[in-house]
Structure formats: C-alpha cells, structure tokens
Amino acid sequence: MIIRLMAALTTLAFVAACDDIVVTSAPSGGPAPVVQDVPDELRTRGQSVRAFADVVQRVEPIAERECRSRTSGVNCDFKILVDDRANAPSNAFQTLDDNGRPILVFTLRLIDEARNADELAFVMGHEAAHHVRGHIARQRENAAAGAVIFGGLATLAGTDPEAAQRIGAQVGARTYSKDFELEADALGTVITARAGYDPVRGSQFFNRIPDPGDRFLGTHPPNAQRIETVRRTAAGL
Q1: Domain with CATH 3.30.2010.10 in the chain
Q2: CA 174, 180, 181: angle at the middle one, nearest 5?
Q3: Which one of 24, 82, 202, 237 is CB 3.0 to 4.6 Å from 33, fit for a cystine?
C-alpha cells in the first residue's frame, strides 16, 4: 500500500540521489496494491494522487518481477512512500531501509506536477531500476575506492589525509553517477513499457527540469542524452 512518509526517514540508509527530477508495497508474489489503500488525507488532493495510486498498482508488480528475474539474493519487495510535507520539493529517490528493503519515495509536489500517468510511471520505473542495478552498493564501492586513493596521495604529499579521504569519497561517488542514471533510464523504460505505459511520453518530464549539461563530476547526464536513451531502448523492445 501507499504509506505516508514520517520522520522515520532519518533511519533510511544511503540514498541514490535523483534530486534533479527529480511508492506501495505488497510482498513479492502477493497482491498488487490498490487505490483504496491511499490514506484519506491524501485522497482529498484529488486526481493527481488517484492517478499515482493507479500507476503504483500497475508498475510495482512489474518492477518486482524484473528485479527477481535480473538479480539473485536481492530483496525485491519494494515499499513506496509518499512524502506529504508541504515544503518538500519536487523529488523522487530510491534508498534502502536498515534491513535492505528497497524504498521508493515520491513527494506530493512531484506527483502534482506530473502531466500524465506515463511520467509518473517512468519516474517510478527509473527509481526501481536503481535498486535492480545495485547502484547504491556500487556507489558505496566507488566512494570507498576514491577515499583510499586520495588518502594515499595525501599521505605521500604530507597533507591532511582525512580531508583528502572525504574529497576522494565524493569524487569516487560521482565518477560513474551519470552512467548509473542512464542505466536506470534504460531499465526504467523497460519497466514502464511492460507496465503498459509509454516511456517516451513519460521521459518528456526531462524537458521541464533544469538541464545539468555535461558538467565535470556532475551527478546527472544532459537531459537530451537521457531522452535519447529512452527512445533507443523503447525502439528495441
């Protein structure tokens, strides 16, 4: 079911950030979440939340199926949370709880700003794909490697190794983040399409967010590259 996001968010683990774009759960193999599970206080927001509930009902079981078919020994029991804080910006992200269960979080502002169900489905598929592709673990590994390298160089140079390790961790975490986003766009396209939505139409969401361009150590690739990835993947389905 769709659950309101409480202060317990502070217990969530590492976040695979999708902060420039920028949830549900039934046990794996169990019944899909239904519209009736939307809390009454969210129902009053009207059509956007009802549309989101419909998307959850269709996308969540497909995301779990893709997760199970593409991974081994991974928790594929997605839990989807709605952050209903009035001041929360338009955002969606994937994280893990303390037991390794995948969490997908959507803010109400993002839900309200989506122009159609295809956009909501694509964002949901994209965030689920981060988990399927193991991006949180891979980002941690990159950060650890960066910290070791920079710390070693600082020691040789006679400078502060702890400060260098912090910088190295940041650099390492960002090194492949653009690749991770494109991987999530591609698999998110598959999930979106198999749930019965149009991923190309859904990717038009990128046209309404700031374009990060191709900045050195930026966390996200250019919007045009992301849209092209979706088009190419969808054409191959």
Answers
A1: 3-134
A2: 100
A3: 24
